[in-house]
Amino acid sequence: MLVQLDNNFTCAPIDEDWEKLEKVCEIFEAFNSATNVISGSEYPTSNLFLQEICDIKELLDEKCSDDDDFIRSMEGKMKGKFDKYWGECNLLMAIAVVLDLRMKMRLLQFAYPQFFPNEEAKDKIDECELPCMRFIKNMRRKVNLPPVNHLYKSVRIGG
What pTM did the predictor assign? Predict the structure, then answer.
């Protein structure tokens, strides 16, 4: 049947090929979903970006220990590129998360230790907190509200 559709057709995929394709599609579906959230709107909400990135990282970490050598190898390459690209988390994206009243610093406290070693994660969180505190203090001063002491309750990173 496939020969009739494609003159270059020489052999049909075996069951193992279809299983690999199914696993690859599962991975790509997660990327497709994140892409739709991040760029699928005329009014993207940047406070959602970091959560999508965390979901992708979690999937890649999980698939790196897949039973299938093909998937493990593919995921290892993808994870390396992902970690290099997103390991340098964008400060602007982090600030958008902090300014989301539902999340504040909690998502950064959860996400950054996944992207960075413990001390570096703490430094990155501190690096984000300072401009946010300045912004909040300035806004509170403009509307005559009392000063705020902190954005979040302290959470220990790393044990």
Answer: 0.65
